[in-house]
């Protein structure tokens, strides 16, 4: 009977947590909807447009901070804050390299978080699938490297190619490393968010460096996948922290 009561209590607590998390994410969903409602292809770069674009990511950072505490400033919350800085920079094309640098720092912070003990319960439980993880890591490296090689001639034609070409190469290494470490966590939301982030950045690169002719609604594709990726990474971090607490309680009992 005690076991049944404990199980029922855990289910109620998880359900209540999911409802509370969904409510705390409402400002993110509303601000994302506002961004897509206000955005137009001929939108003039301004402080207001930068603020509207960065607002959803900053609100996600606030949610992670409220659930996981101040230590997440050096983790996912910090990565979201640097991502918001990148969002603002990318509003102005001349600040593209600065934006890329801000996102590179975000990926470093995500990577450090995915290596932390918060995700240890997932990585340890997936040790039997280590060969699959190694295969997926190899696929990521091959795909990332092939995409950079494909992009290379277009980078050479871009303004500031002397900075852009190595900078994009370093950025590809960092985002690929972040996705590889997300595989290590074994957490579905974290892994999905990291892979979708790569898809979003690949789509952005194909458009910014004029690899493809102008795509109708191309910007919408980039931003939908971007916001979705950040949402999944943030939710994954909150869930990982919650499940780590559950795991610690289980070990003590």
TrEMBL record:
<dbReference type="GO" id="GO:0047408">
    <property type="term" value="F:alkenylglycerophosphocholine hydrolase activity"/>
</dbReference>
<feature type="transmembrane region" description="Helical">
    <location>
        <begin position="163"/>
        <end position="183"/>
    </location>
</feature>
<feature type="transmembrane region" description="Helical">
    <location>
        <begin position="218"/>
        <end position="235"/>
    </location>
</feature>
<dbReference type="InterPro" id="IPR012506">
    <property type="entry name" value="TMEM86B-like"/>
</dbReference>
<protein>
    <recommendedName>
        <fullName>lysoplasmalogenase</fullName>
        <ecNumber>3.3.2.2</ecNumber>
    </recommendedName>
</protein>
<dbReference type="GO" id="GO:0016020">
    <property type="term" value="C:membrane"/>
</dbReference>
<feature type="transmembrane region" description="Helical">
    <location>
        <begin position="72"/>
        <end position="93"/>
    </location>
</feature>
<comment type="similarity">
    <text>Belongs to the TMEM86 family.</text>
</comment>
<keyword id="KW-1133">Transmembrane helix</keyword>
<feature type="transmembrane region" description="Helical">
    <location>
        <begin position="195"/>
        <end position="212"/>
    </location>
</feature>
<dbReference type="Pfam" id="PF07947">
    <property type="entry name" value="YhhN"/>
</dbReference>
<feature type="transmembrane region" description="Helical">
    <location>
        <begin position="99"/>
        <end position="120"/>
    </location>
</feature>
<feature type="transmembrane region" description="Helical">
    <location>
        <begin position="44"/>
        <end position="65"/>
    </location>
</feature>
<feature type="transmembrane region" description="Helical">
    <location>
        <begin position="20"/>
        <end position="38"/>
    </location>
</feature>
<keyword id="KW-0472">Membrane</keyword>
<keyword id="KW-0812">Transmembrane</keyword>
<feature type="transmembrane region" description="Helical">
    <location>
        <begin position="132"/>
        <end position="151"/>
    </location>
</feature>
């Amino acid at each position: 009977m005690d076991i049944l009561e404990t199980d029922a209590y855990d289910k109620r607590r998880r359900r209540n947590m999911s409802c509370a998390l969904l409510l705390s994410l409402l400002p993110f969903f509303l601000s994302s909807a506002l961004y897509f409602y206000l955005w137009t292809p001929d939108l003039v770069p301004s402080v207001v447009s930068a603020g509207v674009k960065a607002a959803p990511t900053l609100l996600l950072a606030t949610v992670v901070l409220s659930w996981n505490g101040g230590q997440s400033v050096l983790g996912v919350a910090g990565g979201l804050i640097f991502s918001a800085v990148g969002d603002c920079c990318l509003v102005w094309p001349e600040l593209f390299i600065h934006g890329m640098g801000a996102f590179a720092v975000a990926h470093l912070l995500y990577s450090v978080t995915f290596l932390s003990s918060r995700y240890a319960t997932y990585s340890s439980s997936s040790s039997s699938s280590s060969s699959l993880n190694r295969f997926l890591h190899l696929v990521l490296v091959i795909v990332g490297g092939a995409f950079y090689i494909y992009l290379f001639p277009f980078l050479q034609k871009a303004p500031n190619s002397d900075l852009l070409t190595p900078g994009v190469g370093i950025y590809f290494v960092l985002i690929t490393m972040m996705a590889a470490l997300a595989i290590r966590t074994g957490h579905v939301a974290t892994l999905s968010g990291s892979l979708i982030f790569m898809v979003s950045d690949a789509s952005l690169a194909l458009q910014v460096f004029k690899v493809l002719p102008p795509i109708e609604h191309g910007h919408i594709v980039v931003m939908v996948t971007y916001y979705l990726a950040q949402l999944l990474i943030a939710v994954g971090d909150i869930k990982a922290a919650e499940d780590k607490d559950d795991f610690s309680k289980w070990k003590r009992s």
